[in-house]
TrEMBL record:
It comes from Paramecium pentaurelia. It comes from the Eukaryota. This is Transmembrane protein. Residues 484-501 have a biased composition (Polar residues). Keywords: Membrane, Transmembrane, Transmembrane helix. The chain crosses the membrane at residues 22-44, 343-368, 452-474.
Length: 521
């Protein structure tokens, strides 16, 4: 009787404290989902703003142009094609849009949708009148239309060589070195070169302003409010996207459904200035690409849409801030380290959420009285072991994350202070300072906030874990105490029963002694 009752309490399939166990599972899951969401947001935002740093560093690393010319022929060795544009190509598809050739009875064969499908047509689609669209690879557009499309040109540029890039040779004082030529008079916009003449500072199309020149384009080797011209880009619509890798599209125009790299009605970068404007039909015609519209039904090439050749000069740092230029370029590496940190935190958070969902399911199974064969014990024992696994995993991952955050805290705070200093000292133009502000906002309101919230939740979690541990220890103490009292009770009852048995036995033996024939009174 004694052993059977105790064992049943230990091995009951339904654990005790069911409401508490459910509440704790929900707490763990919500905590980890919160951390996962914050880590994903932080990671995506740090990836997003890094483009601005890469953009500026790339701009500074380029050499200026010492000559720019246009030709109806080819560019010569060492020259680059300034007006180079890569048309992205289209994916394979199936054109099931309605047209005059559509035969009504074919609806029986295939329920036709009035759209381009991103897949190869099957036999039913073809029988219903759909047409295959063959994949087209990207094309190089290397000619610009002039004279209303009657002529096409290439613009060829030759860059300086050596260490003349703004990243390596930007002047830190208001004078150039002894063997260098000073180009410009404005202290914030002059440039030093080792060449015999200044590089190209500006390029204009003669049709855009009054000029007696018969040349299509004109270049200028000095401008007191600009640094040398180093980047060119062809874009659709009214400018180049702020994110340099995005393709722009005319506002209100939709992308062709099968285009490989769609355009965006994006925020434009005013640092790219318009040099030459031309229409889409002439542009495609100059590059012998009108066949695209024939091979890809629905791809519109129209003279209603405008394209442009845009140029960007070196992005300036004021002379007083040039001392920060090297540190700014090193910020790319700092942000890459922060990105790696956020990636690790995000991966750990995703793994934890996945594991805790699994553990929640397992705990629910034990709560409903099911036995898990891969965990010894049943009921309360089984649930306690699952709790211990969760507790250990939670503490290990949170401690690891906290260590990562604390180690990188100084680096993060250093970047925040640095970009704040650049903004406070007006180190660049308004548009570039706006990008610095976006970087600062992400570092402060996203990364820093996530890290701060994580540390707070970490200590709150530790406090809750301690309370839970104390509660479980107290419950276990009460349970053991009750079992010991029950054992003592059974022991007392057993002892009492034994004594009663002995007494009864003694009383039964006493009359027998009185009937002894050898007994004499």
């Amino acid at each position: 009787m004694k052993d059977y009752t105790i064992d049943r309490q230990e091995t009951s399939e339904v654990p005790d404290n069911v409401p508490f166990r459910i509440a704790f599972q929900i707490y763990l899951l919500l905590l980890n989902i919160t951390l996962m969401v914050l880590s994903i947001i932080s990671y995506c935002q740090i990836i997003d703003v890094q483009d601005y740093l890469y953009n500026i560093n790339h701009n500074w690393s380029l050499q200026p142009f010492k000559s720019i010319r246009y030709t109806e022929g080819d560019c010569v060795q060492n020259e680059e094609i300034i007006n180079h544009y890569i048309w992205p190509g289209i994916e394979q598809g199936c054109d099931c849009r309605y047209n005059e050739q559509y035969i009504e009875p074919r609806r029986i064969l295939y329920t036709r949708k009035d759209k381009l499908l991103e897949q190869e047509c099957n036999s039913s689609m073809r029988a219903a009148g759909c047409q295959d669209i063959v994949e087209m690879s990207s094309r190089d557009f290397i000619r610009l239309p002039v004279d209303f499309g009657n002529k096409s040109l290439r613009i060829c540029g030759l860059r300086e060589v050596g260490n003349n890039s703004f990243a390596l040779n930007s002047p830190k004082v208001n004078e150039c070195k002894e063997n260098e030529l000073k180009c410009g008079t404005n202290s914030d916009y002059f440039y030093c070169t080792q060449e015999k003449e200044c590089p190209i500072f500006q390029m204009k199309n003669n049709s855009n302003f009054d000029s007696e020149s018969q040349d299509y384009f004109q270049t200028f080797r000095q401008n007191d409010n600009l640094l040398p011209l180093v980047e060119f880009k062809i874009a659709q619509g009214n400018g180049v996207c702020r994110k340099i890798n995005e393709r722009s599209i005319t506002s209100g125009r939709s992308n062709y459904e099968l285009i490989s790299d769609p355009g965006y009605d994006c925020e434009r970068d005013p640092r790219f200035q318009l040099i030459y404007l031309f229409d889409e039909f002439n542009f495609f015609q100059a590059n012998k690409a009108l066949d695209i519209a024939k091979k890809a039904p629905g791809y519109h090439i129209s003279s209603l849409y405008q394209w442009g050749l845009y140029g960007r000069n070196y992005i300036n740092f004021t002379l007083s801030c040039r001392k920060y230029q090297k540190e700014f370029m090193d910020s790319v590496e700092y942000l890459e380290n922060i990105e790696s940190q956020q990636l690790i935190l995000m991966i750990i958070s995703i793994i934890c959420v996945t594991v805790f969902i699994l553990m929640l399911i397992l705990n629910c199974l034990t709560i409903f009285g099911l036995d898990l064969p891969f965990i010894s014990g049943k009921g309360t024992q089984e649930s306690n072991k699952l709790f211990f696994i969760q507790f250990t995993l939670k503490e290990l991952t949170q401690i690891a994350n906290a260590i990562i955050i604390i180690i990188n805290f100084d680096s993060l705070q250093g970047r925040i202070n640095f970009f704040k200093k650049l903004i406070d000292q007006n180190c660049s133009d308004k548009f570039t300072l706006d990008e610095f502000q976006m970087i600062l906002d992400v570092l402060k309101t996203s990364i820093y906030t996530f890290n701060f919230v994580y540390i707070i939740l970490f200590f709150i979690g530790v406090f809750i874990d301690i309370l839970v541990g104390i509660f479980l220890a107290y419950q276990n103490y009460k349970k053991r105490k009750g079992q010991n009292q029950q054992q003592d009770k059974y022991k007392d009852i057993s002892t009492q029963n034994n004594n009663e048995i002995k007494q009864n036995k003694k009383h039964k033996e006493q009359p027998l002694n009185n009937e002894d024939p050898f007994h004499s009174s």
